[in-house]
Amino acid sequence: MYEVQELIENNLILVGATAIEDKMQDKVEETINDLKKAGIKIWVLTGDKVETAINIGLSCKLLSKNMNQYIVKLSGDFDQKLDENSIYIEVYQRLQDIYNQISYNRDKNGIILLNNSFIITGDALIYSTKGENKDLILKITNYCSSVLCCRVSPKQKQQIVTLVRDNNPKISTLAIGDGANDVNMINAAHIGVGILGIEGQQAARASDYAVGEFKFLKNLLFFHGRECYRRNTRLVCFSFIKIWFLIFLILFFFSIQVYDNEYQYKTLLQNKQNYYEQGIKNKLLNMKVFGYWIMNAFWQSIIITFFSYYTLESNFINSNGFTLNYWTDGALVLTIAIFIANLKVLIISFQYNLAYLLFIIISILYYIMMTKVIPFMFRQSDTYSVFNDILDCPNFYFGIILSIGSTSFLDYGIELWNRWNQDLQYRNNQKQKILQEYYD
User: Any transmembrane segments, and where (predicted)?
Assistant: First the structure.
């Protein structure tokens, strides 16, 4: 290859030259800095040569001068003199040296420092994603805050994303690009984001989300992404114990999922490090959270069963002279559960307005309407006239009040405690941050 270039590129007359302006978009530096503060590891995959890529990395604050830069690349002579097996061994030795250097770079507590950047070229990457080199490169990048891959092809971009995604199922990958050469990479990531720009719309069409500029990625992740994650975790947890009742909560819960925000837009953008890491570390949906919801459902079921049984025990005859049976107990349990489910959604919400109140009223009225319609659909069933019978019993309303008061009061107290504890942790983090900046 190099011999052919030297043979052809001789005694040429320069006829003209073309310059291509490829300016950096607005607020790229600020956006990358915010992403790093939120605990997101950034990999830049580019077709530029090493020197150009490093300069761009420094200008957008992806790299800094106080970082330890580890570069892996193959020179022209190196590639010509050695066969593939020899090159593989040389790359392995280079990666092993880098890993050893990173392992020795520790703080006072013995924790490996992350002030490292890893830079690798496309030709070296060919031999770095095979065999033992693949495991080494994953270990190295795990202790690097920034990774820069230069002179990589569109296929290699896809391979890199796939490598990271398949070897660590616990992490989520996001790929963002603006050109046709980024389409494979965008499709390989968990979440693909395309930038609508002068380089065409291929990337945007192949992506899950499209933004006008790179700076809008901050809004997509820190506000919309974080809030969608929080809402979905509540929906999943709520569905564990209330899935049957969603038919009576669909309007109210739909409005919560769309409009309920825990914090204002500016608050989430300014405190990205404290709030966005909840998704990275799975703080809102894990076995501990799952266990809490199951125990909460178990405790509520005990309360509902207790009050529904004992409130109707002393009233065995209805107004028509018929004896109440276990169907009436079941109707009371169902009614209590519907009310508690609506109040549960209201308690875990962070914003309250007239629309929420309206949806609660609609849900309850819908349930009352169904209690009137269902008996006529099953006239031969034992459930016929059950709801009409218990509506005449004063103890029915007494049981509802006791059950709802007991369960909702407990839920409200736990929710207040969790929110206070979260705010306390945030204030402590802010104090530590201020002290660290002061001593630094």
Answer: 238-259, 290-310, 330-347, 354-376, 396-417
Rounded distance between C-alpha atoms, residue 407 and residue 340, angstroms: 8
> What is each CA distance from 255 to 243, 344, 363, 432, in whole angstroms?
17, 14, 13, 38
How wide is the angle at C-alpha 186 spanned by C-alphas 182 and 192, nearest 5°? 135
Residue pair 258/235 in contact by the 8 Å Cβ criterion: no
Quickly count: other Cβ atoms within 10 Å of residue 207's Cβ: 24
CA 81 to chain centre: 48
Quick one: CATH architecture of 23-217? 3-Layer(aba) Sandwich (3.40)
Per-residue tokens: 269: 């953008």
Which three-class secondary structure state does DSSP give residue 248? helix
Taking the domains of the chain in order of start, what are their residue ranges? 23-217, 224-439
Roughly what angle, to the nearest 10 degrees, separates helices 226-242 and 326-347?
A: 170
Between the alpha carbon of residue 228 and those of residues 36, 240, 262, 272, 279, the distances in Å are: 21, 18, 11, 15, 10
**DSSP letter string, 36-51:** HHTT--EEEE-SS-HH
- Residue 252 pLDDT exceeds 80: no
Is 378 strand, coil or helix? coil
Reported pTM: 0.65
Provide DSSP, 142-174: HT-SEEEEES--HHHHHHHHHHHHHH-TTS--E
**Cα–Cα distance measured from residue 393 to residue 399, given in angstroms and rounded to the nearest whole number:** 10
DSSP annotation of 244 reads: G
Give every CB contact of residue 91 below 8 A, 6+ residues apart in sequence: 72, 74, 124, 127, 128, 133
Mean pLDDT of 351-366: 77
Which pLDDT score, from 0 to 100, does residue 434 have?
60
- DSSP string covering 281-336: TT-SSSHHHHHHHHHHHHHHHHHHHHHHHHHHHT--B-TTSPBP-HHHHHHHHHHH
Specify whether the CB–CB gap between 392 and 334 falls below 8 A.
Answer: no
CB-CB neighbours of 433 under 10 Å: 12
Q: Are 187 and 194 in contact (CB under 8 A)?
A: no
